[in-house]
Amino acid sequence: MERIDLDYSEEYLVVDAIVDDAVYFRTVIPDGGYFVLDPKHSGVVAKGAHGHVRFDFLRHPAVMRVSSETEEDFAEAARDLIIARGYDPKKFRLIRPHALHILCWYAEQMAPGTAARRRRRGTSDPALVGSGSEHGNEANLSFKLHLVLSGKASDTVLDTYDAERQPPSMHTIKASVETGKLMQTNNPFRIAMRSFTFFLDRHSRFINRQFFKAWQRKPPYQDGLMGKTHTWHSMHPHL
Fold first, then answer.
1. Are 184 and 111 in contact (CB under 8 A)?
2. From CA 125, how far away is CA 102, in angstroms rounded?
3. Do 87 and 28 meet the contact criterion of CB atoms below 8 Å apart?
4. How does pLDDT run across 26-85, given as a tens digit for each residue?
5. Residue 29's Cα: distance from chain center in Å?
């Protein structure tokens, strides 16, 4: 199987914890999520519901334990991380501290199709922009399986999956990689540009709208069933 490396391989410490003190959770932990932009201690802190807080930080050897093997090792590293973020570790009940190795790549291999041999693709995705299963791949495949299994379409409809889902998935994955690199950069020029960009984003409503539009833009369906190039679509114009 050919594998194309997207030049992003890092190990993160992921900590899920519960803050049982409702007052501390409400008043000390910021709502929502925020990025920590530090080349030696970069990551994400996200506040959820019902006391849940998640820390997702790069395991940089200069500031974080990188030789953790046991549950006790991970728990100690998690407490160190909580302290480093300025919180009281006694307020956090650890429920899942573990290492996450992100290796981003793109693979192609030949697999038998329904009428002919076709390409199948796979990726490993850093979930830095809310990606992972949120790509919509499951939804795309499930309704097509329903059409086939209910006798409303031939199984050639399944061949449109790659054409439709590959471009937006790759778009999101590459955005995740660029986000990770931008968070962790120690290049003075990139740090200055990042700071200037965020300054404009905070102080200009027009710039903020433009950034939002650029971030939301995804490649449209040009091919496949949704792209209206499949012969089955011409026979079912109401879809």
1. no
2. 7
3. yes
4. 999 999 988 888 777 788 899 999 999 999 888 776 666 656 667 888 888 899 899 989
5. 23
Tokens 């114009």 belong to residue: 237
HSE on the CB side for 49, CA within 13 Å? 0
Three-class SS state of 195: helix
CA distance 197 to 213: 15
Which H or E element spans position 58?
strand 52-58
What is the enclosing helix (H) or strand (E) of 162? helix 160-184
* Structure token digits, residue 155: 């199984």
Nearest to 25 by CA among 46, 54, 51: 51
Asked if residues 125 and 115 have their Cβ atoms less than 8 Å apart, the reply is no
Q: Which residues of 115-140 are buried (b: 16+ CB within 10 A; e: fewer)?
A: eeeeeeeebbbbbbbebeeebeeeeb
Q: Which residue has the tokens 């590293």?
A: 77
Q: What is the pLDDT of residues 128-185, one digit of tens each?
A: 665 554 556 677 788 888 889 999 888 888 888 777 777 777 777 777 787 777 777 7
Residue 168: exposure state from Cβ atoms within 10 A (0-12, 13-18, ≥19): middle
Contact status, residue 171 vs residue 219, Cβ threshold 8 Å? yes
pTM of the model: 0.64
Q: Could you tell me if 227 and 233 are in contact, meaning their C-beta atoms sit under 8 angstroms apart?
A: no
Structure letter (DSSP) for residue 59: -
